[in-house]
Amino acid sequence: xxxxxxxxxxxxxxxxxxxxxEHSLATLAQQELERRILGGEIAAGAKLxxxxxxxxxxxxxxxxxxxFRALSQAGLVRVEKNRGVFVREISLDEAxxxxxxxxxxxxxxxxxxxxxxALDEIELLRALVRRMQAxxxxxxxxxxxxxxxxxxxxxxxxxxxxxxxNALLEHYRSLVKQLDLxxxxxxxxxxxxxxxxxQEHEAIVEAIATRDEARAERLLTDHVLGSxxxxxxxxxxxAAAR
Length: 242
Description:
This protein is mainly alpha-helical. It is 75% helix and 4% strand. The protein has a 3-stranded antiparallel β-sheet with strand order 1-3-2. A hairpin with a 3-residue loop joins β2 (77-80) and β3 (84-87).
């Protein structure tokens, strides 16, 4: 009777577990790097060193390489041969194109959300608007563009989920992540537009709450294109001042 090599039979499960572990670590590394990039902890244009990142995250270089590949596919980093990996920088022209596409997506989100949103989600949107309003009327408090930016992101994420369309949500999130690379570098320049932006958010909530699909679509489309126009205005004013 032939002998059985138990060492070979045991090796397969061990290798499978190791592959699963590496995959899990790569996902965690990707999520953490994405958080730091979109949170502004790692600046646009910064070079990501594989060894330094692996040390900082407490993982080996393999998961970091996988994370870099995933972030490149997501449009958050660029890989340059013989130079390394860099956090992607978005130009004004690219951002303008992204705004145009986002306006269409947001319009559809508004129409679908007005049709499908739940009552508790409407209340959540209203609560977010109240917090936005606090940035415009609190005496003696400097407006925090960073805090407002976070509220704005959450507001539109709630709306996107309320549309109840997973394909739309996936495309929306992918686009917004890339656009956020640009918007974060210009936060302070657009701070003076916070009151107007808050009023627009308030009108959007009311259109959604009254199930007015056409108005919600129009308001969200105009809101995104208006945001683009205000950003361009702020950039031009900053250039003129310099």
